[in-house]
Write a structure and sequence with these properties.
By secondary structure, the chain is an alpha+beta fold. It has a single domain, classed as Elongation Factor Tu (Ef-tu), domain 3. The protein is built from two helices and six strands. A six-stranded antiparallel beta barrel has the order 1-2-5-4-3-6. The radius of gyration is 14 Å and the shape is globular. The N and C termini lie close together (5 Å).
Length: 106
Amino acid sequence: MSDTAHDLTTTLWRWSGGAKGGDWFFVTIDGEVGEALSATALMHRLESGRRSGWGSVKVAVQVGETAWRTSAFPSKEQGWIVPIKAAVRKAEGLVEGEAFALQLRF
């Protein structure tokens, strides 16, 4: 993981369904930061000779005072997506559809 911090404003959105049901919340990472994630994924694949699970890239995320580690996943429709867990949404008062600041390191 690099020391480069990518600051962006994004919006929380909900995905419903899946094998176990329930709602999952994500943010979309696109534009320059999405391109940097794609380049990082390609570099990892070239260095290791294999693709990580679902093509993901490990990231460190910070929203407000809350920081955690997760993975960014490529999405054919939306560039990259990063899950935002319930504890973070609650701690930082995140609401679906409202923009907020997020910092991403990878």
